[in-house]
Amino acid sequence: MDNMAKKEGILLIGADGMLGSQVAEQLKQKNQTFYQSVLKPEHEQHLALDITNKQQVLDLIDQIKPECIINCSAYTDVDGAEKNEELATLINGTGAENLSLACNMSDSHLIHISTDYVFDGQATIAYQPEDPVAPQSAYGRSKLIGEEKIQDIAKSWTIIRTAWLYGPDGNHFIKTILNLARKNDQLKIVNDQKGCPTYTVELAKCIIDFSANKTKGMFHFCNSPECSWYDFALEAINMSNIKCEVNPCTTEEFPRPAPRPSFSVLNCDKTDKHLSWARSSWQDTLKHYLNNYEYEIAK
Q1: How many Å apart are CA 57 and CA 149, to the nearest integer?
Q2: How confident is the model over 66-79, as pLDDT tens digits?
Q3: In whole angstroms, what is the distance from residue 293 CA to residue 18 CA?
Q4: Per the CATH hierarchy, to which homologous superfamily does domain 2-172+197-224+263-280 belong?
């Protein structure tokens, strides 16, 4: 760790997650100096870090003194949070607080990933970053606490809210749906929840751009346009040439422990002004995912 005394590079927290692994991959491609931390390292290149342990966070960041910290670590089990709100708040709230304090000590910029669940889900037009928040679930409340801690404490910060993540790594909606479609003749998919899918490959690119420029403030990132889970699933199944009948259904037909927002479309105009490239449609990113990572698209 002696070679980490110089203030440089990026500390990527949660480098083994769905989003963090993609951020790490793109940083490697750019030959950028960065350090990866996870809760329980399995590889030599990973550092151990429990963001709920304040002293551990302060000690590691003081030792590394990175220019920027990217926090991709989170408690993301939306239904599990209903029974484990204290744990969700510890990770998503207290963890963000600890990182904020450490960033101030090391004069580092903090980039934190948040969620559409901080809103009430009752809007009819896309949520702006400055719109009022009113989370309806334990998960949303825990993420909002994290946002508030960062805004109250950190001197230099970026918060990027996102939604409906999928990509090359981890488990997600598209991977689950395609596996089910290959095993069943018919599927029912919720059609009364609207949002915007987000491809981790593009979100990671945005995060890295923001880290380079230390772009400050509250932002939204997702792909466009809006769609329902039914629309998203149907497109993925059709692109994959899977013979499965897809039928729309209501949220009430599939009750879950945590309430789902009926409308969680995020307005990304503010983000677009800070990017030198154009966000893709979710149809184009879905095609890229299917063609390059998961399933062969019918020609």
Answers
A1: 16
A2: 999 999 999 999 99
A3: 13
A4: NAD(P)-binding Rossmann-like Domain (3.40.50.720)
Per DSSP, the residues of 10-59 read EEEESTTSTTHHHHHHHHHHTT--EEEEESS--STTEEE--TT-HHHHHH
| Predicted confidence (pLDDT) per residue in 170-216, tens digit | 999 999 999 999 999 999 999 999 999 999 999 999 999 999 999 99
Q: Which residue has the tokens 């059609």?
A: 191
Distances (CA, A) of 276 to 161, 209, 269: 19, 9, 13
Residue whose tokens read 């880290």: 211
Tokens of 65: 């003194």
Does the global pTM surpass 0.90? yes
Q: Name the one residue in this structure whose structure tokens are 């230099």.
A: 156
Q: DSSP state, 250?
A: -
CA-closest candidate to residue 160, choices 115, 196, 130:
115
**Which of 71, 61, 160, 158 is closest to 118 using CA atoms?**
160
**Cα–Cα distance measured from residue 51 to residue 183, given in angstroms and rounded to the nearest whole number:** 40
> 79-88, long-range: CB within 8 Å, 24+ apart, which pairs?
79/256, 79/257, 79/258, 81/137, 81/138, 81/139, 81/142, 81/258, 82/137, 82/138, 82/139, 82/257, 82/258, 83/257, 84/138, 85/138, 85/141, 85/142, 88/138, 88/139, 88/142
Please name the residue that has the structure tokens 């949303």. Answer: 140
- The whole-angstrom separation of Cα 14 and Cα 101 is 18
Half-sphere exposure of 295 (CA within 13 A, CB side): 19
Residue 158 structure tokens:
């970026």
CA atoms within 13 A on the CB side of 36: 23
**Token pair recorded at residue 230:** 């039914």
Catalytic amino acids?
Answer: 139
